[in-house]
Amino acid sequence: MSKATNDPKNPAPSPARKDVVRAEKLQAGYSGKAVCGVVSFSLHSSQSLALVGPNGAGKSTVVKTLVGQLEAVSGTTLINGAEVDDRTLDFRREVAVVFDDDAFFPSLTVEEHLAIVAAGHGVGDVEEVIASELEFFGLTEQAKSRPYNLSSGQRRRMLLAAAFVRPRSLLVLDEPEQRLDTAMRHRLASRLRAEVDAGLALMVVTHDPDFLSTVATKAIFISDTIHAMTPSQAAKAIASENPHAD
Ligand SMILES: Nc1ncnc2c1ncn2[C@@H]1O[C@H](COP(=O)(O)OP(=O)(O)OP(=O)(O)O)[C@@H](O)[C@H]1O
């Protein structure tokens, strides 16, 4: 007979953690030609994977392939156990992605962008959620501005805010630190870490060792071969551009 589950010497078995992302021998590239080594990893909820490596190593190509925006040269990616298909409702409901700096409607204001994303994902208290994210991203005064009247950093904040006004169990960010000032980088990194600790799965491409150190729970260094690393090894590798730093 099993012992009581609140016995500290015989804790209840923790439920098996499911993979949110599972990459199996994934090769990413263009026109059938791989741009980097073969990627295999798994990512659970409450884990954050940093993808690091030099310019042109293949980080963006890998993450775009992982989320179905590019066709894999070979190998597979499973998200929540299903082969990646970014057209399915499940995928669109669960996965928030911020890649492109020009992914906005020129004629819509900042708050209209956020309202469309929130409403499209069935968020109930849209106005409250938007007000909160405008404040977090320092865009309250720009709520009625259109993207071309924003600075490049403010546009970046708007695109990031759009990922936070909607539900998400997997968040994928390509160099979120780009064009953010130091204070905003720190605020964003702290928030992401808190969300990861609360259950979010995060994949992030970054060149910022401090951002990585705050956010990541694991890392891979992308080059012709792929090296799994601890976050501190990856932060050192970025800082020194030495993939084998320890
Ligand atoms: N659309 C494309 N068609 C063909 N080759 C591409 C395309 N986009 C990128 N590449 C090439 O693929 C390689 C990897 O590019 P990628 O953008 O994935 O690198 P990265 O590691 O994200 O670099 P960075 O740190 O500079 O953002 C590069 O050699 C790049 O020139």
From TrEMBL:
Organism: Arthrobacter psychrolactophilus
Domain ABC transporter: start-end pairs: 21-242
Entry protein name: ABC transporter ATP-binding protein
One Gene Ontology MF term: transmembrane transporter activity
Keywords: ATP-binding, Nucleotide-binding, Transport
Lineage top rank: taxon: Bacteria
GO cellular-component term (any): membrane
Entry keyword ATP-binding: yes
Entries under SUPFAM superfamilies matching the protein: P-loop containing nucleoside triphosphate hydrolases (SSF52540)
UniProt-listed Pfam families: ABC_tran
PROSITE patterns: ABC_TRANSPORTER_1, ABC_TRANSPORTER_2
